[in-house]
Amino acid sequence: MKLHYLSCAKTWTEALPIGNGRLGAMVFGDPEAEHLQLNEDTLWSGRGPVDENNPNAKNVLSDVRGLIAAGRYAEADKKSKEMMGPYNQSYMPLGDLRLKFRHGGVVQAYERSLDLTDAIARVAYRIGDITYKREMFASYPDQVIVIRIEASAPGALDFTARLDSPHPYRTSFTADHLYLQGICPEHVDPNYYDRDHPVVYGEPETTEAMRFEGRIGVQLEGGAYAIDHDGLHIQSAKSVTLLFSAETSFQGYDKPPAKEIGQVAAANEDRLQRAMAKSYEQLRQAHLDDYTVLFNRVDLKLGASEAAEPVPTDRRIAEYGAKDAGLVELLFQYGRYLLIASSRAGSQPANLQGIWNKELRPPWSSNWTLNINTQMNYWLAETCHLSECHEPLLGYIQNLSNNGRKTAEVNYGCRGWVAHHNGDIWCQSAPVGDYGHGDPVWALWPMSAAWLCQHLWEHYAFTQDERYLREQAYPIMREAVLFCLDWLHPDDNGHLITSPSTSPEHKFVTADGQKAAVSQATTMDMSLIWDLLTSSIEASGVLNMDEPLRAEMAAAREKLRPMRIGNHGQLQEWSVDWDDEDVHHRHVSHLFGIYPGRQLTELTTPELFQAARNSLERRGDGGTGWSLAWKIGLWARFQDGNRTLALISNLLQLVKEDETNYHHGGVYANLFDAHPPFQIDGNFGFTAGVAEMLVQSHAGEISLLPALPDAWPVGSVRGLRARGAMSVSLSWAGGALQEAEIEAQFGGSCRIRTKESSLSVESEGTNVPYEVVMEGVIRFDTEAGNIYTLRSL
């Protein structure tokens, strides 16, 4: 469970990430010039919330619908540009901590690592007879980044620590601290928007943009230190602990940033002083006690590693890839590590790059991209036993819904709430595109609320927390339903449809050869609305409320335009059987009903299930990093373990930082997912996909080893979660289940699907009776807190 290397990082995608949900750093590990690139999760461009809604959208809606109904799709595309709002803001880097050492000499025995079992990045090397070691971690309990530097000989540490930033800033100092204060841009255009002055700063004293401070404190063993405008200078020490804290003027999604740097500085100094009152050992132990509770819940073993000897991670990727089961285990747990590091209670949700970004104009603004990427970030949260890490997204959805109510009313004249393709820290809910610059193929997509509500329901499905469902989840889901009920309208056949409707980022080709984006009733729209209605019907039933609305939802669900099978035997992506602009397109939006949805299963919808599989075959096994991860989850739902492993092989290919082939995919040397460039969703999607290979519970039963590949004949997993608040551990040999343990948190009926013909079930040494529901499926009753052991006979 360690990423390790024999040289320092030369590029950002070779550096190693640490984080505590709020603070993040990329550690480079240079012996002579250590570099930590720093982030804080509320540091964004912008001047606070603005009214991004477009009243004109409501005025042109009927025109766009008329053009679509008349089959004038290219004209509808053009007209729909009038429905857009401004681009949203961008996630910003904070700055850099640089340590310049004065030990000189020839470096020997160098090693750099990130241990996932303790979330500590390490650097070790020798100069002469003196060994130097560094340990670096981001503490959630103390909300600081801790850098421990040790030498094996007294007086051997001499270095200077400096802070800088890509933003306008100044550095200053007190007797105990070095600090940097700066301002963010008032506006940043997306990196794909080519125009003059894409980054705009205000005057430092009067700007309404975000202000921030980074601050360093020091603890010494031996030696001395001095602080001045040039930095923090360490002389003749044996060990040094540096603590870094940061604070911004963010006051909430619905408020402008605070204008006074003084209150930012006071909060930051207080946090740092509290951490400084602890010894390194106390800081380290508090970090371990917090982190290991989360990380140690799940353990995965997939058999012997192909790499017999320890191999540096970059070489391991290049030489072995998915043939190395140990590398697959490492990448699986890395996804869990990254979620713990980028999404904790009180933090913002993980964005397109988690919390790690070095660019003033980051790829795709490093925002929350809501047509797949943000959702994929959290597919693993429940199944991989990190439910607490789901909470930042659930809170963000609440805030987004508050803004989305106004967008629904102003832009569309609808009840409820709506959101679109992109979100930022100010919870922009209107379609982006700078009032016509954007392409409706991605900008005009009012379905993210429906998809985000899946996460609200899934959190309940896995935790069975009825209070959460009643007080937080269902009210938001209900409002999203109201929008969809108003947005849907009947077609000539009496089916309910959406219009305008897009299949995110993928265009169709009409019979006369025109490419267009907007049409009506795309399969993804219908699937998302079916999912929202189904979950909301179930939620209102659990809560025993809203019976009239429940009946209305059920009636609307029955009238949704049904899915269709095209002339290639594929599940149609659009309501008309058009050709794809790109048959190998990275998005597979029309397959939502397979995964992460639950609408299509082999048992309940066999023809559509097969058509969806045919669609995935047509898409092929290439794609961007996150697209490969989505396909892993899809092939797992199709119960094809060998095909799933083939996708894992495609993902586990080494990508260099300067590679920009969007359809290449793969991972960088530090195992970050490569779109390319870096996007973290592929890391999270991969981990979720591996979990789906081993345990599935979306169809009202717990399916054990549904997609086990032949190459993993022996293995075990402990601590995965299933819907119904069940924990699942299992082991297998010869490609067949040996034993499974089901822990029932709240009790209730449990249905298990296996490929084994005969099973025994016992609890506390006593046989438990079960009924055979159908071939391969058994059912038994459970009691709260009990563990049930299933064995193959």
Strand content: 15-25%
Q: Helix count, per DSSP?
A: 18
Mean pLDDT: 97
Report how far the terminal alpha carbons are from each other: 34 Å
Q: Catalogue the unreliable spans.
A: none
Radius of gyration, taken over Cα atoms and rounded to an integer in Å: 27 Å
Strand arrangement in the largest pleated sheet: 1-6-7-8-9-18-15-12-11
- Count of individual beta strands: 37
Task: Indicate the structural class.
Answer: alpha+beta
General form: globular
User: Which percent range fits the helix content?
Assistant: 25-40%
Major sheet: 9 strands, antiparallel
Explain what this protein looks like in three dimensions.
By secondary structure, the chain is α+β, with helices and mostly antiparallel strands. 30% of the residues lie in helices and 25% in strands. Strands 1-6-7-8-9-18-15-12-11 form a nine-stranded antiparallel beta sheet. Helix 1 (55-69) runs antiparallel to helix 2 (73-80), helix 9 runs antiparallel to helix 11 and helix 9 runs parallel beside helix 12. The longest helix has 22 residues, at 391-412.
Question: Which secondary structure elements does this structure contain, and how are they paired or packed?
Answer:
Elements (H helix, E strand, L loop, with lengths): L1 E4 L10 E4 L3 E5 L5 E8 L14 H15 L3 H8 L14 E7 L5 E9 L4 E8 L2 E10 L4 E8 L5 E8 L4 E5 L3 E7 L3 E2 L10 E2 L10 E11 L2 E5 L2 E7 L1 E10 L12 H16 L3 H16 L3 E3 L11 H7 L5 H18 L25 E2 L3 H5 L1 H5 L7 H22 L9 E2 L16 H4 L4 H16 L2 H22 L1 E2 L5 E2 L10 E2 L5 E2 L6 H21 L3 H13 L19 E2 L25 H14 L5 H13 L3 H11 L29 H14 E2 L5 E3 L10 E8 L3 E8 L2 E9 L3 E6 L5 E5 L2 E2 L3 E4 L2 E6 L4 E6 L1
Parallel strand pairs: 28-32
Antiparallel strand pairs: 1-6, 2-3, 3-4, 4-5, 5-10, 6-7, 7-8, 8-9, 9-18, 10-17, 11-12, 12-15, 13-14, 15-18, 16-17, 19-29, 20-21, 22-23, 24-25, 24-26, 27-28, 29-30, 30-31, 31-37, 32-36, 33-34, 33-37, 35-36
Helix pairs in contact: 1-2, 6-18, 9-11, 9-12, 11-12, 11-13, 12-13, 13-14, 16-17, 16-18
GO molecular function: hydrolase activity
Protein name: Glycoside hydrolase family 95 protein
InterPro entries: 6-hairpin_glycosidase_sf, 6hp_glycosidase-like_sf, AFCA-like_C, Alpha-L-fucosidase, GH95_cat, GH95_N_dom, Glyco_hydro_b
